[in-house]
Amino acid sequence: MEYYLLITICFLAHYIQNSIRENLRNTFKSTITLLIAIFLCFGYMTGTDWRTYENSYQWITFDKFLSIILFWEPGFIIYTAIFHLLEIDFWIYLIFTKLLTFSIFYWFLNKYSEKRYYFLIMTFFVTLYGLYFWIDNPLRNLIAFSIFLLSIPAILEKNKWKYFSIIFIAITFHYSSILLIPLYWILSSRIKSKTIIIFYIIFSLIFLDIKILFSIINTAFSWFPIITNKIVFYSQNINEESGKIISFGYLIHNIFFIILLLSRKKIETIKYGHLIFNSSILYIFLFRLGLSFNVFMRIAMYFALIYSISVIYILYNLENKSKIIYQLYLLLIITMITWSSITKDSRYIPYSSYLSYIFREKPSYYYRYYYNDNNSSYPRIYQ
């Protein structure tokens, strides 16, 4: 199965990279990373969101800007309209955008994480988030996630206006980015561990009631009609999944939450450790928020890569024997989550790549639309 092969290559690459000669490590790292990028970014009939984006690509043009802006963010319209104006095929546009965002994630991981743990971080990140980011592909979200990563140097420089300027650009691709504005001060602060625990307990109890969540956000953003309208729309579509008290993912992240707090001193001694710790704790808070209503889970995803770094950095606080046990635990989690993700429905299996159709006649939109549903043994998405 392609997905398990991908995860196995990522995981084994960690041990291979650290055992080969130093002069070969960069070449090895670049080669494996390129293979990962090709697998993730060239998916063809897999995923879900491409259907809407391919259909809308035909009418996102500059002359329709004022009417389209009611449905799409302005930055995304301008970005997409440029490709449309240049008469670039939708799939070239989509794959280019995926590769561009992947390169930003790669840059960030290369710059802000320890080299020896690169592939362990990549394994965890690809499993929990990468399949969703680039194969299921929430495109506007993904672009906004990538732009947010570009704002991290501004936080480290304590340059809030540079940070706000970059976040403003992210907002033009996905309005959820507006919630990143007040987070500048949280990411820059040092909050005591006891305070974090107390707030987490209170936070978890308060947001068991989804109505409280909507009330707070509605009050905070009542000045922004587009956000308010989206809140009203989402609040009318609450289902039985809202207001969850517990889930498998929640249990896993709570375990990491405890271990991260215990490992805090060690993590904060590592370069950029303070920011990485704050971001990872913030991710867990936002994940809990997402349990109350799933749409808010996407806000947590802004911190997914940094959270992945922190989960691996826990190794710094462990003795050699404990490191082996922890890595086996990570491997178990990765295996279970991969299976859960790819068998949930038909979006991931069967895997297909655009590369295999380069020199062939392309299937019709209708054929591709139902391809995974018609050829998967897992639950259909489109009836």
Automatic annotation (TrEMBL):
Pfam families: EpsG. The keyword Magnesium does not apply. The keyword Transmembrane helix applies. InterPro entries: EpsG-like. Keywords: Membrane, Transmembrane, Transmembrane helix. The chain crosses the membrane at residues 28-45, 65-84, 90-109, 116-135, 141-156, 163-185, 197-224, 245-263, 269-287, 299-318, 324-342. This is EpsG family protein.
